[in-house]
Design a protein that fits this description.
This protein is mostly helical. The chain has 21 helices and 4 strands. The radius of gyration is 22 Å and the shape is globular.
Length: 512
Amino acid sequence: MNRQAVQAFAGTALVLAVLGGAYYAIHAALYVACVSTAGVVSFLVCLRRAHRDDMALRSLICVVAMPLLAWSLTGARLLHLAMCLWVPLLAGRPERIAPLYLFSLLLLPPLDTAVELGALKLFDFGVQDGLAVGAAVAIWLKPLGTGRRIASDGWVALLLLMLGMALSRETSATNFLRTTVNLVLDLGLPYYILSRGIADVDGQRGALRWLACGGVALTAVLMLETWRSWPIYNELYGHYNVPMVLLVKARGGLLRAGGPFVEPTSMALVLALCLAALSVLRDDFRSRAQYMGLLAMTFVGVCAPQSRGAWIGLGLAVIAMAIYRGRWRALLATGASLGMVIGLVILTAMLSPGFAEALGLSGGSASETTTYRRELFEQGKDAFWQSPLLGHSMPQLNILLADLRQGEGIIDFVNTYLWIALIAGTAGLLIFIGNFLDPLIALWKRRRDLHRTPAEAPAAFAFGVLVMLGEMLFFTSFGGRPAFLTLGLFGLGAAILRRPGSIAHEARRAFA
């Protein structure tokens, strides 16, 4: 570690120590700013200097200023406006817009409020929508001239059209308008930003660096939430008077930390994406020891929400990325390591009931979750065969599956494939699956062209996390940031696959 890095780290540690001294006297925003700053600083110190110089100032501004803004402003509309301006003002250059958008997307809860015309509700708008609108407009005004991949655009357009028609079926025209606008904001814009805002291999790797940095920052926040049993971000819903069903979940006496996502399963899924991004960026860090330390730290963050699906999905992503890169020896070593870890975990769970409950392998909450998933699948399967081609409208589903309504008054469709089949039938399910298969097949065909080039890591990441999401969506509902990032990954895949041959040539030239 050079002298400047030591001085920067020591100065930051001193500031954090002073702020932490007044632990209960400082506002929640300062807690979040302190711990996330510590996470970002640890990430920056480990980066090579060129990457650190590019990221340092903007990443630190984000983790300090965003929570301070969120807890200081007096109205949700002011916060939404600030988020619309956030990415364009902070990015500086067009090629920074997409990476900075990815990073900022992770740091605050959605805080959605209704946009109304008189007494008529038009659509919902929140923090993530503001970030997306600002980033999309900035890319549209200053395009990078990246072109587009027609096949990817077509699949995503079919998906948005299918969801819009399915969700607004047998409802009013205003509901169709609201559904369409929400889908464009929530799903269309993330795809547009990632597919049009990444111009070359450096942009692809930069996006992964920002995503990995966000994972380290979130890990620090989740560690604080778990340690203090304090769901910090829930306060913002009361601060802005935003209606929301806020559930605090625990297993084995430990809080299932949800961070800014509020819901722990979604939090674990997104942190698994961040860890996958970090795992392919070894060349961007100064030493192997520092890199392994960041991997271990982020894995702790993945464990904090106590989601079994995230661990399984992360294992699948690691295996898929190793297969894509042809690293068979590493794959065997990873398989052996995973086998040893799983065996140790199972043995410890057998000896410690508290540990088993924390992992969700026993206890009342785990049993209830498993029972609900089984009942949802059985009743959903019966409902599907009543209308296998076109599915059912949401009002019909609420009647058919009324027995599954939970205490918060909703039917939680924690199986995305089942939900798509129920609302859009077989045709809709094929469209949804096609959005995964198209980039997966195209990326697999491109693997030899990208082998041992700088472009191989982003392509392996896109391939691995699409495999991971394909598995995890069997156990996760399709909404919120998992849905945003899923469409963002489709956009990243489109950016990697754009202009066949040119990316591979550019990658080889950069490697040379």
